[in-house]
Amino acid sequence: MGEASEGVVFPSLDDIVALNRVHIGKSGGDYTGRDNLHNRNSLEWVLDVIQYPPFGIYPTISEKAAILAFTIIKKHVFFDGCKRTGMSVLEIFLDQNGFFFDATDDNIFTVARRLASTNDKVYSFEQFEEWVRRHMNLQIPL
């Protein structure tokens, strides 16, 4: 998964769609149409904004990872599997860019549900990005 740009590895839209298909196939759910995309525009937008940030928004790896997952989950980019896909993309993005994500599965599940079921005033992007930052650790090569 991913294309490198200025040293940062980014997922493609096709990578994310394929990951969503895997999640639906493994754990169940409905896969609609050829790509299960419900809100393609939001997914295309977030992929563009993390690679070519206007006015320097989302400059850090944690912000890029967080806005990617946040958008997949909050904007319901898929008909089904948004929480699973969003959190998996977050972990893969961090891993491919040299970070280990140490949140427990239970914590990831709780945060994903909170994102999906609350408005931005209850659980904001800033709070989510802080959670991501707290749980990412630089990988140390052996």
UniProtKB/TrEMBL annotation:
GO molecular function, one term: kinase activity
Domain Fido residues, every copy: 11-134
Protein name from the UniProt record: Fido domain-containing protein
Pfam families documented for this protein: Fic
